[in-house]
Structures are given as structure tokens and as C-alpha cells.
């Protein structure tokens, strides 16, 4: 898809539109378009390239793409995995087997 078409499609969507991810889960989305590079992109560029080269990269990107869109996706649910007190069953079984084999030596 060409960038101009992609941004037009994003801009046409309303906040709260539902996205279907490749895993088949629906997510709530918000699309914001702006006249310049979004803050998070500039921060990421500086983290990745270093301060001076990151700013130079953002300037170059700004000349090539005068508008940028931010697509924020919020999941419908969140799970917390507590690996300090509870492990997924496959890991727990592997740890148990390993402990038994070490104990047999």
C-alpha cells in the first residue's frame, strides 16, 4: 500500500475503531495524525542513533514525510505473568524434571 493511501485510510478512521490483529483478537484503536514527526519516533531515533545522529535522522525524515500518524492500540484485556511465584506449566514441569535428575546424581 502506498504511504499516501495508508495515511488517508488512517485519517478516515474514527477514534475507537476496532482493529483485527493477525491473532484474531479485536483491539480498540486511536489514530492521530500530525504535521510532523511524532514525539515517540524522535525519541526512539535519538535512543537508537545517539543524540546528534538521531536529530539529523528526524530532520531528514521530516523533509521526506511532512505528516506522520500515530496508531495507538489498546488491548481488551491484560494478563500479568508472575514468574516469581508461578511458572507456566511447561516450565514448571521442566524445572521439576531437572531438579529430579540433578538429585539422582
Describe this structure in words.
- The chain has 105 residues and is of the alpha+beta class.
- It has one domain (3-78).
- 48% of the residues lie in helices and 19% in strands.
- It has four helices and three strands, in the order αββααβα.
- The chain has a three-stranded antiparallel sheet.
- β1 and β2 (26-34) form a beta hairpin.
- α2 (39-49) crosses α3 (51-64).
- The longest helix has 15 residues, at 89-103.
- The chain is elongated, with a radius of gyration of 22 Å.
- It starts with a helix and ends with a helix.
- The relative contact order is 0.14.
- The model has no long low-confidence stretch (mean pLDDT 76).
Q: TL;DR of this structure?
A:
By secondary structure, the chain is of the alpha+beta class. It contains 4 helices and 3 strands; from the N terminus they run H-E-E-H-H-E-H.
Amino acid at each position: 500500500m502506498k504511504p499516501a493511501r495508508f495515511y488517508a485510510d488512517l485519517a478516515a478512521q474514527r477514534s475507537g475503531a476496532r482493529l483485527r490483529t493477525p491473532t484474531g483478537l479485536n483491539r480498540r484503536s486511536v489514530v492521530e495524525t500530525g504535521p510532523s514527526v511524532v514525539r515517540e519516533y524522535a525519541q526512539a531515533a535519538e535512543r537508537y542513533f545517539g543524540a546528534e545522529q538521531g536529530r539529523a535522522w528526524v530532520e531528514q525524515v521530516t523533509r521526506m514525510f511532512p505528516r506522520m500518524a500515530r496508531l495507538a492500540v489498546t488491548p481488551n484485556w491484560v494478563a500479568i505473568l508472575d514468574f516469581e511465584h508461578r511458572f507456566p506449566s511447561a516450565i514448571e514441569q521442566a524445572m521439576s524434571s531437572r531438579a529430579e535428575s540433578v538429585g539422582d546424581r
